[in-house]
Amino acid sequence: MSSDTTLPNTHPDNCGGCTSCDPNAVTTQRLGVKLDGYDFVVALAGNPNTGKTTVFNTLTGLKQHTGNWPGKTVARAEGAFACRGKRYKLVDLPGTYSLLSASVDEEVARDFVLFGKPDCTVVVTDATALQRNLNLAYQVMEITPKVVVCVNLMDEAKRKGITVDIPALQELLGVPVVATAARRNQGIDKLVLAVAGVIDGSIQCEPKLPPTPPKLQKVIDEILPMVKRMVPGLPSPRWVAYRLIEGDHRIRQALLSGELAGLYPVRLPVAGVVNQPVADGVSDLASEQGEVAHV
Ligand SMILES: Nc1nc2c(ncn2[C@@H]2O[C@H](COP(=O)(O)OP(=O)(O)O)[C@@H](O)[C@H]2O)c(=O)[nH]1
Ligand SMILES: [Mg+2]
User: Fold this and answer.
1) Model pTM?
2) Is the CB of residue 111 below 6 angstroms from any atom belonging to ligand 1?
3) Domains by residue range for the chain, with CATH
4) Which residue has the least CA distance to atom 8 on ligand 1?
5) What is the pLDDT of residues 101-123, one digit of tens each?
6) SS3 readout for 38-49
7) Does any ligand 1 atom lie closer than 6 A to the CB of residue 54?
8) What distance in angstroms lies between residue 50's CA and the mean position of ligand 1's atoms?
């Protein structure tokens, strides 16, 4: 199939995601390697073997831009699709069970979600092993609220007699949850609609994260104001505080160098003024940061 075709309509009855089932459904176009001039960046995260690459191929077609992540021997694939006049660049992240930078793959995935600032991150999960897969979803939701959880392999779950209560899961997580069977191209249009909704703000994400143990909360409460002061627009100060407690060097360095603050500039009331990390702020932080490292 060429890279510029409209995705085939192979949805079952009442899937809610194609033109025969839903008059308002989307038509998604594969754009292959045409990555220039895109409007939004979408990252695809997920445990290995959840069907992440299948989702990627279904959306982008087989023509992909492949290479390595800068400075790493980890493969990187990018593609693009268009929907309702908007162009989306899709980045396939390495398959990982967590984002704790315990391996190069985890570091690459973590860094892209944090520093790449995708407009939306889709976490592809395995419907037959949801509990294990949600660990990664929670970690992504700690970093960014703009998350869509894709519950893939729904056909496999059905075959095994496993049912997944999608509305309940959505309520539990506080972000959109979409059921798919990517190999059969089922639910993919709904996934695109959810991504588009999260990006344009018509769908509000309010991630519900697991409670922090009280002892840890005490330490977080001490660090949090400092992080918020350093990076006022940061969507994930709690997560950054966690990483500092764990002695995460990359995050510490990103705070101290102003890299994080540069990613989330806050507009001051005076028109056109953007707060850049200022030298004295950074040196204040450096002294406070020294304490943090010993927590
Ligand atoms: N039954 C079924 N198999 C799937 C589905 N999605 C992917 N697969 C299969 O699962 C295997 C792993 O898929 P892949 O996309 O490589 O997973 P990744 O490791 O997450 O990138 C492949 O054999 C796919 O054909 C699905 O929705 N249903
Ligand atoms: Mg893959």
Assistant:
1) 0.82
2) no
3) 28-200 (3.40.50.300), 214-292 (no CATH)
4) 51
5) 889 999 999 999 999 999 999 99
6) CCEEEEEEECCC
7) yes
8) 6
